[in-house]
Amino acid sequence: xARARAVAGLKTPRTRLKRRPNRGHHDFxxxxxxxxxxxxxxxxxxxxxxxxxxxxxxxxxxRTLYIHGSFASRMLNELAKGIPxxxxxxxxxxxxxxxxAFHMSVNYxxxxxxxxxxxxxxxxxxxALEIISEHILPGRWADVRWPNRKELKATTVLKLDITxxxxxxxxxxxxxxxxxxxxxxxxxxxxxxLVPGEPVADAQLPAGTAVPDYARxxxxxxxxx
Length: 225
Fold this sequence. Notes:
Layout: H1 2-8, E1 24-25, H2 28-37, E2 41-47, E3 50-56, E4 59-61, E5 64-70, H3 74-79, E6 85-97, E7 105-115, E8 118-119, H4 122-136, H5 149-153, E9 155-161, E10 165-170, E11 188-191
Antiparallel strand pairs: 1-10, 2-3, 2-6, 4-5, 5-9, 6-7, 6-11, 7-10, 8-9
């Protein structure tokens, strides 16, 4: 029954926001945009009665997310068994400095996807690795040596369909109590943004090798729809 509800829409009893539901979003476009802009996600699961939350790279192709790692990865081997997982990605947009400590907050955009993952093999596995690479830095895949047979064998790729998910977004100024508005204390938002630094060449790079244009571009293009 849970699977049937999930297919009907991304909002389910498990993804419905109970606190601050006005900040919740369940449309695919909002969730996909957050996932595309985030560099890393956290994958949470329970193995042997112990909860884990592990950061990892990921990539999106339409309504499918891909994660990868070593064939010896405990996380991937456990998830390949079909145990439930929770994948989350968060972008911090600013620090909200209120007049009281109680109302200090953060402006953010977060996405959460629930489900189970399945192992990917064959042509889809190679395609998934390209998608993950292009999520991190579009254009890089065409420039590097692709994985050989040995490297592919040493790599596990899993996929997760986006069928049960939610987003939560906080934006705007602080919300102070009326009694605190007259306090002589600065209040407002300190915007935060991830920006690239100047590329640093590897010490063993042949002389005269130029920095590719894609390494200078930011922000990155969105994922594949």
